[in-house]
Amino acid sequence: MKSRRHAKILEIITKYNIETQEELSDCLEREGFHVTQATVSRDIRQLKLTKVAGASGRQKYVALGDNQPDMSEKYIRIFQNGFASMDMAQNILVIKTAAGMAMAVAAALDAMDCDEIVGSIAGDDTIMCAVRTVEDTERLMERLRRIVSGGPV
Questions:
Q1: Entry pTM
Q2: Contact 126/95 with Cβ under 8 angstroms?
Q3: SS3 content of the chain, % helix, strand, coil (to 5)
Q4: In 3-state terms, what secondary structure has residue 35?
């Protein structure tokens, strides 16, 4: 049932400019899916939906995996603007950010498909990333250094 609902959500946000969870819930109800607000919220998180400005300037949900124009550039800019430093301890990568930027930088990392990262935790100005191996941590740090310096990713 969940996979059918997820497929329907992706279809709905592709067809319509959905601005709120309530609008999404209403569309799902019309399609025969009886959902709570908590279910819709969880689905949005699991599908990695985010809001972007549409052509009219109003916000709408899109899937992060969609090739939205300039989306990867936006995440790279967020990473570059928020990044302060990084260090590693074995397979743990610690990234320091500007105050209040850790969550945004962590979301940018998630969107940049850093497959080496198993999971991350963000505070106010610090992100802790669990990375698969020490070697992956070193490769990831080199990639992030290139992003910060504006070089080729």
A1: 0.56
A2: yes
A3: 45, 25, 30
A4: coil
